Amino acid sequence: MSTRSDLLTSAEILLRTKGYAAFSYADLAEDIGIKKASIHHHFPTKEGMAIAIVESYLFRFRNQLDAINDENTCVVDRLNAFALMFSNSSENGMLPLCGALAAELLALPESLRALTKDFFEIHLTWLQGNLAHGQAMGEFKADLDVTKVSRFMLNTLEGASFVSWAMNDDYQKSSGFDLILAGLLVPQSKH
User: Fold this and answer.
1) For residue 180, with 0-12 CB atoms within 10 Å meaning exposed, 13-18 middle and 19 or more buried, which class applies?
2) pLDDT, tens digit (0-9, with 9 covering 90-100), for 144-171
3) 4-29: per-residue pLDDT in tens?
């Protein structure tokens, strides 16, 4: 891997574990084993580095969402795969990137605030689309407000990440996402 790539990987981990305000180029220099001047060569500003991290992450994230849709015809399976992304990042002791950024929103430069909002909108748009598709396919109750339910789902997943991170416990067993899904399903008729 290149130094730039190593820097982005290390900085993403620091963003998701320590936060934007708490990590420095000195942390990166120590982690990667290079001088701070070398970091400045690749990323003259911390803001520029963070933007590169978020843009790279968003590219991968959009691809993951597309893959989830392509690989799963059942919307419940899609939503479970979406929730699994939160669980997987929790296993590595990290917060979701968008949640970590949102926790420090007022300390972020305006460019990162805007990217953070865009990031959440991508989540919500994907959830709304899949919930509406689930309704159209008869998987979910027809009277669901997909805007409110998508927000509730994202609130649950993001919030569970923070609680699990603070409690150092098993995210997947404590998120409650399965309870939300169960409440959305159309009851199966009894024959």
Assistant:
1) middle
2) 999 999 999 999 999 989 988 888 887 6
3) 999 999 999 999 999 999 999 999 99
Amino acid at 131: L
Helix or strand run (H / E) with residue 130: helix 110-136
One-letter identity of residue 28: L
Q: Are 127 and 140 in contact (CB under 8 A)?
A: no
Domains of the chain, start order: 56-184 (1.10.357.10)
φ/ψ (deg, to 5) at 53: -65, -50
Tokens 């963003």 correspond to 15
Question: Collapsing DSSP states into helix, strand and coil, what is residue 73?
Answer: coil
Structure tokens at 158: 């993001």
Q: Which residue is it, tokens 């024959």?
A: 191
